[in-house]
């Protein structure tokens, strides 16, 4: 007996939701790594650092989203924290991209060299972990002494082996799902950072989960 059109639609809907379940479960399975990253970020904020965020395409808007979440918390009473997105200044991005011999690959590293301080946090976002300018930005950040954090998808790409301090991976091959999981990840980041900052005693030792 052939399947009815309704059955086909139900199966499609089921698959649509199923492929979003495992990546979220992976966040739970790697809760310790996520918590350690959040703890490290909170320590840098506690010591006076700021967050510097960057990414390309859709990730550039994620970078702006992350920055505004920290600078202007949507939850009343939560502490505002210094953060800047390197994708927000179109004049600087396009100026560096067209005025540098290395072009687009240099847009984040150049800004980091001139805007960041050693006590800051660099957060690079890439759906596949292979964006050359995000990798270069994180490498420059590490060389300058910043704490480096990467949000990636799939198997982590080149970022997984880049020496980035903390790499948080959305284990999905569909870039749409990766982006959805990234939103969850950086909301967790925001929330746990505030949890640690509200308990300053927790910032003097390593986090345990």
UniProtKB/TrEMBL annotation:
GO MF terms, alphabetically ordered: carbohydrate derivative binding; isomerase activity
Keyword hit for Isomerase: yes
UniProt cross-references to CDD domains, sorted A to Z: SIS_GmhA (cd05006)
Record key words, sorted: Isomerase
Domain SIS intervals: 41-206
Domain of life assignment: Bacteria
A biological process from GO: carbohydrate derivative metabolic process
SUPFAM superfamilies documented for this protein: SIS domain (SSF53697)
Protein name per UniProt: D-sedoheptulose 7-phosphate isomerase
